[in-house]
C-alpha cells in the first residue's frame, strides 16, 4: 500500500504541473463546438469532462490507461488466464502495469479490509428480501460513509492538495468491502442467508465467488474476466458521470458511488444485463434449444413491434460490436463446450444487427457488453438475473473510485454547467 501511495504522489505532482501548464498556455483555446442538437439529445459526443482512467473510441472501444482489454489480458499480472482485478485497479489508479509483487501487495491490502462492521451486516440483513438488489447495494455502499477518511480530512486542517490521500483510503475501502455487501444481498435474497467469511489469501474475484456460495475455479475465472470487463468505461457514461458529479461537491466516495449505483440501475444503462437475460430466457422458452435464425427474427420483431428496445444492443458511443462482447464470445469458445442459451446469444448476434439496420433508428445496431454477460453467469449457475447489475456495480467501483482519487488529485472543482430554457435556446439559435 505504501508503494502505491508513493507512486501516486509522484504522478500527481507531475500531472498537476501539466494541468497548470495547460491552463496557463492554452486555457482560452477552443477545442470543440456545441450544437443545439447536442443540447437536446443528451450531450452526445460533447467533449466536456476530464477523466484519467480510461478512454472510449467509437471504433476500437475501451482502453484502460491506453491498453485495450486483450492487451490487459496479455500484460497484467494474472491468476490462471485472466488479469487479477487488483492489477486492473493498480493500472487504473497509477497508469502503470503493476509488477506481480505490486499486484500482490494490493491484493493483500484489499483482502485485509474486506470485512464489514457488524452494524452494516445487521442493517443489510434487516432489509426486505423483495427490495431490488441494486437498491440494497446502494444503501449498503452509502452506509459505508460513516467515519470515512475524506470527511475527517475535510473537517480537520488538511490542505486541499492532500485531499486525494484520504480519498484513496476510502476508495480502497470501497473496493475491498463492496464484494461482501453484494454477497450478503445475494445470500439473503436468493439463498439461506448464510455466508462464509472473506479469506485473506484470495483475490477479489475468488472472495466474491466464495461468499456468493460457489466453490468452482471456473466460476472464479469468469468473475475475474467480469470484474475486468466492467471496471471502467470512460467518464461520460451515466454511472461514472454521476459519481464524478456528486464527488465534485466534495462528497466522499461512498456517497458519490452510491449515487452512481442508482444511475447504473436504469434499464438503458447497467440494468440492461438483467433485462437481456429476462428477454433471452423468454426467447429460449419459446424457441427451444435449437432455434433457427427465423425463430429469432420473429421474436425480435415482436419486441420491436411493442416499441421496446432490443436489450443488449446499441450504444451511445460505440459504432462497432462492443469489444467486451466479443471477448465474452471468445471466453465461451475457450471455456464452454455447449450451452443452449449461449448458442442463442451467438445466433442473436448473427440476426439482430441486420434487423436494427433495417429498422434504421439505432445508430449502433451491434451488441454491447450486456448482450453476453448474463448468459455466461447463467452457465455457471448464477441465474437470479435481478442480481446481475449488482455484479456490474461491484466491478464499476474499481473505475469510479480510481477516477475520484484523480478528481481530488487534480483539484478538479465543483461541476456546474449552465442549463437553458427552450426559449433561451431558441433565442440563441436565432442569434447564431
Ligand atoms: N433496439 C431498438 N431501438 C434502439 C436500440 C435497440 N437496442 N438502440 C437504439 N434504438 C433506438 C433508440 O431508442 C432511438 O429511438 P428514438 O429515435 O425513437 O428515440 C434511436 O434508436 C436512436 O438511438 P441511438 O442514438 O442509437 O441510441 P442512444 O445513444 O440514444 O442510446 C442506448 C443508447 C444504449 C441507451 C440504446 O442503444 C438502447 O436503449 N439500447 C438497449 C439497452 C441497452 O442495451 N443498454 C446498455 C448500454 C450499455 F452497454 C451500458 O451503458 O451499460
From TrEMBL:
Keyword Transferase: yes
CC per GO annotation: mitochondrial matrix
Record InterPro entries: Citrate_synth-like_lrg_a-sub (IPR016142), Citrate_synth-like_sm_a-sub (IPR016143), Citrate_synthase (IPR002020), Citrate_synthase_AS (IPR019810), Citrate_synthase_sf (IPR036969)
Keywords for this protein: Transferase
GO biological process: carbohydrate metabolic process; tricarboxylic acid cycle
Gene3D superfamilies: Citrate Synthase, domain 1, Cytochrome P450-Terp, domain 2
SUPFAM superfamilies assigned: Citrate synthase
GO molecular function, one term: acyltransferase activity, acyl groups converted into alkyl on transfer
PROSITE patterns: CITRATE_SYNTHASE
Entry keyword rRNA processing: no
PANTHER family the UniProt entry points to: CITRATE SYNTHASE, CITRATE SYNTHASE, MITOCHONDRIAL
Annotated family: Belongs to the citrate synthase family.
Protein name (record): Citrate synthase
Amino acid at each position: 500500500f505504501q508503494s502505491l501511495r508513493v507512486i501516486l504522489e509522484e504522478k500527481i505532482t507531475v500531472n498537476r504541473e501539466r494541468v497548470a501548464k495547460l491552463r496557463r498556455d492554452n486555457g482560452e483555446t477552443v477545442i470543440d463546438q456545441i450544437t443545439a442538437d447536442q443540447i437536446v439529445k443528451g450531450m452526445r459526443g460533447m467533449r466536456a469532462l476530464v477523466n484519467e482512467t480510461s478512454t472510449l473510441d467509437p471504433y476500437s472501444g475501451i482502453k484502460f490507461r491506453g491498453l485495450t482489454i486483450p492487451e490487459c489480458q496479455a500484460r497484467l499480472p494474472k491468476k490462471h488466464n485472466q488479469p487479477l482485478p487488483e492489477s486492473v485497479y493498480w493500472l487504473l489508479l497509477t497508469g502503470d502495469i503493476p509488477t506481480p509483487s505490486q499486484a500482490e501487495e494490493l491484493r493483500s491490502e484489499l483482502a485485509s479490509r474486506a470485512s464489514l462492521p457488524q452494524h452494516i451486516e445487521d442493517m443489510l440483513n434487516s432489509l426486505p428480501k423483495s427490495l431490488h438488489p441494486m437498491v440494497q447495494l446502494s444503501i449498503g455502499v452509502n452506509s459505508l460513509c460513516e467515519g470515512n477518511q475524506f470527511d475527517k480530512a475535510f473537517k480537520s486542517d488538511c490542505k486541499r492538495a492532500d485531499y486525494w490521500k484520504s480519498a484513496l483510503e476510502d476508495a480502497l475501502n470501497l473496493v475491498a468491502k463492496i464484494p461482501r455487501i453484494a454477497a450478503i444481498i445475494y445470500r439473503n435474497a436468493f439463498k439461506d442467508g448464510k455466508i462464509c467469511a472473506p479469506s485473506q489469501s484470495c483475490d477479489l474475484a475468488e472472495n466474491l465467488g466464495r461468499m456468493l456460495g460457489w466453490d468452482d475455479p471456473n466460476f472464479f475465472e469468469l468473475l475475474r474476466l467480469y470484474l475486468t470487463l466492467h471496471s471502467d468505461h470512460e467518464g461520460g457514461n451515466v454511472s461514472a458521470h454521476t459519481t464524478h458529479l456528486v464527488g465534485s461537491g466534495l462528497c466522499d466516495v461512498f456517497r458519490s458511488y452510491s449515487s452512481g449505483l442508482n444511475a447504473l440501475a436504469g434499464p438503458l444503462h447497467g440494468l440492461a444485463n438483467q433485462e437481456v437475460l429476462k428477454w433471452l430466457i423468454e426467447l429460449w422458452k419459446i424457441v427451444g434449444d435449437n432455434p433457427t435464425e427465423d425463430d429469432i427474427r420473429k421474436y425480435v420483431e415482436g419486441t420491436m413491434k411493442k416499441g421496446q428496445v432490443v436489450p443488449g444492443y446499441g450504444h451511445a458511443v460505440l459504432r462497432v460490436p462492443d469489444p467486451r462482447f466479443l471477448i465474452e464470445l471468445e471466453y465461451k469458445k475457450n471455456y464452454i463446450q455447449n450451452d443452449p442459451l449461449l448458442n442463442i446469444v451467438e445466433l442473436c448476434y448473427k440476426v439482430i444487427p441486420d434487423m436494427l439496420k433495417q429498422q434504421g433508428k439505432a445508430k449502433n445496431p451491434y451488441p454491447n457488453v450486456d448482450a453476453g454477460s448474463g448468459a455466461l453467469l447463467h452457465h455457471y449457475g448464477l441465474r437470479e438475473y435481478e442480481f446481475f447489475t449488482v455484479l456490474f456495480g461491484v466491478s464499476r467501483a474499481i473505475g469510479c473510485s480510481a477516477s475520484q482519487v484523480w478528481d481530488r488529485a487534480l483539484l478538479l472543482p465543483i461541476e456546474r454547467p449552465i442549463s437553458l430554457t427552450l426559449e433561451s435556446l431558441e433565442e440563441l439559435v436565432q442569434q447564431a
